[in-house]
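From the shared-data thread, chain only:
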Amino acid sequence: MSRLDINTLAARSGNVIHLSSHISGSSSSTGSFGRVETGNLTVGGSQGSDGQVLTSTGAGVAWEAAAGGVDGITSTANATAITINSAENVGIGVTPETWSDIASAVQIGPIGGLWYEDTMFGSPSFHLSENVYSTQDEQTYINDGKATDYEQKDGVHTFKVAGSAFADNAIAGWTIGMTIDNSGDTHLGNNLYQTGNGKFHKRGPQHYVYNTQLTTNESAYSNMYWCKIGDVTGIANTDADTCIHVIVRDGGDDQWSGYCELFYKIVTEENGTHYPSQACLIKHFGSQAIQTCRLARVNGSTTYPGTYELWVEFGQSYIDHFSYEFHYAGGHGTFTPVTSPQTTFSTPQCDDEIENTSFTTTFVNGTVAGSSKSFVIDHPLESKKDDYNLVHASVESPNNDLIYRGVVKLSSGSAIVNIDTHSGMTDGTFEELCQDVQCFTNNESTFDAVKGSVSGNELTIVSENSSSVADVSWMVVGDRKDVDYDVEELKVEGLDADTKASILAAIEEASNE
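Structure, as tokens:
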């Protein structure tokens, strides 16, 4: 075995000494080497192990663990891989953001985060997030773009997303995509939940019901009163619809009949406007308690948060007791019902308002009868709508006729129209609904004769010209199967209701015989 005696060795810096075995020598040896290559190096009678380096002990040279070395970790990094700042937050591959002092974070790469937060005013929470860091009072975007967060808090898992914004801007609001509550139910948004059997079931939205009893002034002029019944505040700058459904019933008056439904809708466009969209009045069983519903915007269309008022105009004299049932989905804005009503003769005026939209209607359970029937609407011409109504009479007939009409283009002299499909009805509806069906056709393009026939729910049109491609207008009329009534009804005056009913029943029985 070859041996190199360092006592007799001197070398210039930069030279290379090749050794086949080991080096030994006294501590008084001198000399410097650019590089030493050896299979085994023994110092002080021992060979170093992985992770050890030669260091001066003050009395000589010995093997010691490398400063900062950790068993089980091997690093080949050529730049800073892990940064621990003075707040003891850790950045892996990145210098961590300036996190809130109530958060402990491991920031992974430019936008990844694993962090714990204790607000001291509520339960602590644990987060796995993207493009989010916690500042003193809020959560903030790290870079330009969108953000996500998975939060565990009080045994509840919440998955959230936030829309796009610039770096260092506060996150204005989270949208909850899924929640797993502590009972194990999974809520998707506000619409579905999953129970332990693994099946999804329909779940109603977040829903609030408020009931109020309002008493106003009873007089012959009650039908001229306006009254505010609720407020909506806190409408945020986001794409959303806010809807309030109100049922108005007798609150203890002996003048009431039927009941009314009100429907108010607010539409909000993100980074745009918010505006009143619908104010619908539905009267049931001839109720006249409410004649107008109005949705009024209090502040400007681009002013946030938005504020709205819900108003009604009474339609009946000598009524003053109203029972209101408010249904509000929540999730956007805050609804507050009025509990101390104030009435006014003045029509409420605000920044913008809408009332009795085209959805306003009256529902009657049974037959509607009268000496004549008509509809009255605002005149469609701008020059006349302030001073004139448009009045049209309804079609009257001894039959309960249903009318279907349209235009079809012939192909090779014929065409087939599915009446259900054309009318937006489920297949088979026309046949179940109509009897004594007739059809009428007219050639709108040429003088070729055309004719039509109905079989089932299909109208077939044929031209005498087998190559015709004419446009043909058509109309199909059928009598309703589900309604039966007497065209002529005997007048029986001066009799009580039971006697009159008995006479009419006897007449009907005799006519059937």
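Residues 6-30, 191-205 have pLDDT under 50 and may be disordered.
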